[in-house]
Amino acid sequence: MPSKSLAGRAVALVGVGALAVGLSACGGTSENGDKGATGSGPVSITYLHRLPDGEGMTPVKDIVATWNAAHPDIQVTATKFDGKAADMDLKLEQDIKAGTGPCLAQIGYGDIPDMYVKGLVQDVTAEAQKYADHFSAGAFGMMKVGDKVVGLPQDTGPLVYFYDEAAFTKLGLTVPATMDDLAADAKKAAAAGKFVAAFTPDEAQNWLSGQAAAAGDTWFGAQDDKWKVTADGAGSQKVAALWQGLLDGKQVFVGERWGDAFTKALTDGSLIGHVGAAWEAGFLLDPLNDTPREGTWRVATLPRFGDTDMTGPDGGSGVAVMKGCTYPAQAMEFNDWFNTQVDDLTSQGLVVAAKGTPTTPEKMKKQFGGQDVLGVLAKANDTLNPDFPYMPGWASEAKMNEVAAAAASGKAKVADIFTTAQSTAVKTLQDLGLPVAD
């Protein structure tokens, strides 16, 4: 990710120079309180989140109540935002500009650079470093813009491999340890009318970039105080070759991840494997409940896409300290405590970024045949590529999905997706007025 000077220049270039690299504790708002360490009452911290708070989950308000009871000098009020992430980002921008924004907010990793460039988050690097070893290195790295840290990670989406163990055993397949193993399994399974993987164009942006990260790539870096984009590097080329071979050989299920065809392939038994985000473990197998195939699936770490056991990110979010937070140190103290409540956050369906051994919920155990699913996902967290941050404008990179749809229908090549990622990323940065290296 860009250096200190580049990060500052990035902010200045979009018209918020006064909020550049030196972002620090700005004047507080009435919402965040005006008492505490320097006044006569407790510090007041507000936290806006999108956690589901569904049935059977530990409610956020209860987690926060535990904190408040033990920390009378730092009182936290949590508010749930019922809406899409993009709508919450818009609300944050509007409220912060109006001086009524929260002190802490849940933000997707892909949106962190945009928030920084717009001057909506604070640099809390010194505070964050106190807690860095509480989280996986890969997740902590996604809260950075350059060498600035704006908060702490909450949940992650490392890519993993889901597979139907019973179907694999019947076909004489072994769990793939490498990309080559996955390709070999796909060929053998296809001969029997089965698919050990799915090519999902509607997930291409994060799904394929995550695989490139697993292969060792870093897409966005710095060169001479300019953004350096390398979205079509060696790792991306390896990933493209894998999926192109599977498409050409008709050895992979092709369809939208969030379409009915994917669910049908899962329920009729034709799809017996899937490279997916860890957070899918919470609901992927719901369609198989109370069927003969309930409990036959398992999860494994991602097959090795590069030279080492590494995975890449597909989704996830952190909790950032927003502009206007009067007491960032106290906010970060709560931030660390909250995001290390592993079992409570696991109950919310999260793959928690904090280190620790979460307890696999009974529902998940039943669906995965008693497997310690969250133990496997925690292991995946530990192998996240530690150097795969995003760039400003990443959320608008949907062009990758369009080209992926064309590749799925044979009208383009998988390699074209990464070429498009490269050209589109460069253009996006240039349109933002940011310098890009040749």
Question: What can you see in these coordinates?
Answer:
With 438 residues, this protein is α/β, with parallel strands linked by helices. The chain folds into 2 domains: 4-156 and 316-355, Periplasmic binding protein-like II (D-Maltodextrin-Binding Protein, domain 2, 3-Layer(aba) Sandwich); 158-312 and 389-431, Periplasmic binding protein-like II (D-Maltodextrin-Binding Protein, domain 2, 3-Layer(aba) Sandwich). Helix content is 38%, strand content 16%. The chain is built from 17 helices and 13 strands. Strands 1, 2, 3, 6, 11, 12 and 13 form a 7-stranded mixed sheet that branches. Strands 4-5 form a two-stranded antiparallel ribbon. It has a two-stranded parallel sheet with strand order 7-10. Strand 4 (144-145) and strand 5 form a beta hairpin. The longest helix has 18 residues, at 414-431. It is globular and about 75 Å long.
Helix and strand layout, with pairings?
Blueprint: H1 4-13, E1 43-49, H2 60-70, E2 74-80, H3 85-97, E3 104-108, H4 112-117, H5 125-129, H6 137-141, E4 144-145, E5 148-149, E6 151-164, H7 165-171, H8 179-191, E7 198-199, H9 204-214, E8 220-223, E9 226-229, H10 234-248, E10 253-254, H11 260-267, E11 273-277, E12 297-301, E13 313-321, H12 328-339, H13 342-347, H14 362-367, H15 373-382, H16 399-408, H17 414-431
Reported for the largest beta sheet, the result is: 7 strands, mixed
Shape: globular
Question: Which architecture of the largest domain would the CATH scheme give at its second level?
Answer: 3-Layer(aba) Sandwich
| Mean residue pLDDT | 90
- At the fourth level of CATH, the homologous superfamily of the largest domain is Periplasmic binding protein-like II
CATH topology of the largest domain: D-Maltodextrin-Binding Protein, domain 2
Distance between the termini: 16 Å
State the assembly state of the protein chains: single chain
How many structural domains?
2
